[in-house]
From TrEMBL:
Keyword Metal-binding: yes
Protein name as annotated: ADP ribosylation factor like GTPase 16
Organism taxonomic ancestry: Eukaryota, Metazoa, Chordata, Craniata, Vertebrata
Classification via PANTHER family: ADP-RIBOSYLATION FACTOR-LIKE PROTEIN 16
Species in which this protein is naturally found: Anolis carolinensis
GO molecular function terms listed in the Swiss-Prot or TrEMBL record: GTP binding; GTPase activity; metal ion binding
Keywords assigned: GTP-binding, Magnesium, Metal-binding, Nucleotide-binding
Residues binding Mg(2+): T22, T49
InterPro entries: P-loop_NTPase, Small_GTPase_ARF/SAR
Length: 180
């Protein structure tokens, strides 16, 4: 799908509905803002993203994060040619979504257009109690096999976009993968 030319590298942010993508970009925008907000404060309200949501971040150089709403899953691939890196978000508090998230992730990893882009897998909502541990979730996901057999360089992080845990690691990942 054609997109208007923008300054800065384009990062795609994907993941199932309600995984926390919109809250993540709002938090990252606040953390990387000029006044360098140290206190995140209460999480701002979010609405389900219908379509796409573009957010610019200044991390040394300007980058743009394009969130595609979970409900856009069937047409995510229309945006693959336009990005230099992918973030894939998983709701770590909803084990019932493991199989659908895994299928979606494998599908994007096997896409020709994404064959050489760095991928960051984020397990979000680690602040919430869950009947399954993250270790069990990752094992069910077969995350180690996915990393071993994928063509792309893959990093995995755990976050809470709600309380801010792990967000500095996400910013570090952006800095380490700054595309031209
Ligand atoms: N407890 C908790 N809630 C979170 C976290 N991240 C997001 N949420 C909440 O989860 C709900 C959905 O968050 P969104 O950011 O809108 O989810 P999304 O992935 O953008 O969803 P779509 O746009 O529909 O694909 C909101 O109520 C958020 O406040 C988190 O880390 N912990
Ligand atoms: Mg959203």
């Amino acid at each position: 799908m054609a997109t208007a030319a923008r300054e800065g590298a384009m990062y795609l942010l994907l993941g199932g509905s309600g995984a926390g993508k919109t809250l993540l970009v709002k938090r990252l925008q606040k953390l990387s803002s000029k006044d360098g907000a140290k206190e995140l404060g209460e999480p701002p309200a979010t609405l389900p993203t219908v379509g796409t949501n573009l957010t610019d971040l200044s991390l040394g150089k300007k980058i743009t994060v394009r969130e595609l709403g979970g409900c856009m899953g069937p047409i995510w691939s229309s945006y693959y040619s336009d990005c230099c890196s992918v973030l894939y978000m998983i709701d770590a508090a909803r084990p019932t979504q493991i199989s659908s998230s895994c299928v979606q992730l494998l599908s994007l990893l096997s896409a020709e257009k994404l064959a050489s882009v760095p991928v960051l897998i984020i397990f979000n909502k680690i602040d919430l109690p869950c009947y399954m541990s993250l270790v069990e979730m990752k094992s069910l996901f077969r995350i180690q096999d996915i990393i071993t057999f994928a063509k792309q360089p893959i990093a995995v992080l755990e976050t809470s976009a709600r309380d801010g845990t792990g967000l500095s690691n996400v910013l570090q990942w952006f800095n380490s993968t700054l595309c031209n």
